[in-house]
Amino acid sequence: GYCASYPLNPEEVDALHLLVCARLALSATVGNYSYIQNPENEYLLLHAEPAWRTLKMWWGAGTEEATELFRGAAEGGGWWWERRQKD
Length: 87
Fold this sequence. Notes:
Elements: H1 2-5, H2 10-37, H3 48-74, H4 79-86
């Protein structure tokens, strides 16, 4: 994976939680804005609801849990996401 070729340093891993939240918020917001500008194009909403839902879940996880997820994902684990989907 990515981390095998380009390992992240601890500061980069620590920043990922906030950066992922910012990216999700931006994506959902731009999608909603675009839909308001062009309401007949429902395709623009395709990712809005999943992005907001994921943002709520991801933000609620907190930095420590998110960092644990990133470390696990870098090592090939996906248990956290599966557990959060059941909550």
